[in-house]
Amino acid sequence: MQSALYKEPYEKGLGEGMEKGIEKGRKEEKVGTIIRFLTKRFGPLPLEVKNRFPELDLTTLDVILDRVYEYKDLDEVKKYIQ
Predict the structure, then answer these.
(1) What contacts 18, CB < 8 A, 6 or more positions away?
(2) 32-49 as b/e, with b when 16 or more CB fall inside 10 Å?
(3) Looking at residues 54-68, what average pLDDT do you find?
(4) Residue 64, Cβ neighbours under 10 Å: how many?
């Protein structure tokens, strides 16, 4: 027989802290992917560009990631991060 303390977390689903942790992990993964792709395309990125990505929301990161191969230069990327 299982105790109520054991069953409760599983019956309620993910807690708020767990959801925030998952979102943080998704964000870190997208930031890393964007930096990797842009570095491959344009060479080493300036620190002011790299440091700006973690401050962006997931929607903006998705837009940048979707268009990463359409950018002609870093100035086009900078429009999204300012």
Answers:
(1) none
(2) eebeeebeeeeeebeeee
(3) 93
(4) 23
